[in-house]
Amino acid sequence: MLVASLEPLQYSIFILVAIAATAVVLTRDVQRQIVVNGFYGILLVILFVVFAAPDVALSMLAVSTVGYPLVVLIAIAKGRAK
After folding, report:
1. Structural domain of residue 24, as residue ranges?
2. For 57-75, what is each residue's pLDDT tens digit?
């Protein structure tokens, strides 16, 4: 009986997360950095699902893709309004 291994999937997700984290750090424009950070958060959600942590994935989904970008964009808008 053949059993599929998750190791190749785990390795590829790790590599994608590392590339996305580097992209977040290297992005200079704040608004683009927020978008890249949202993509990075989605990759982390996928990573947590692959490692069988759906509770962490769900909270990360809410925080990284909705909460954090919204708070930062509101702060930028209020700072520019002054």
Report:
1. 8-81
2. 999 888 887 888 888 888 8
Q: Is the pLDDT of residue 3 over 70?
A: no
What predicted TM-score, i.e. pTM, was given to this entire model?
A: 0.80
Residue spans of beta strands (DSSP E) within 1-82: none
- The Cα 80–Cα 43 span in angstroms is 31
HSE, CB side, 13 Å, CA atoms: give it for residue 21.
7
26-61 burial code (b ≥16 CB/10 A, e <16): eeeeeeebbebbbebbebbbbbbbeeeeeeebeebb
* CA separation for the pair 34, 69 (Å, rounded): 6
Mean pLDDT of 33-49: 91
Q: Give the total number of structural domains in the chain.
A: 1
Judged on CB neighbours under 10 Å (0-12, 13-18, 19+), 75 is exposed
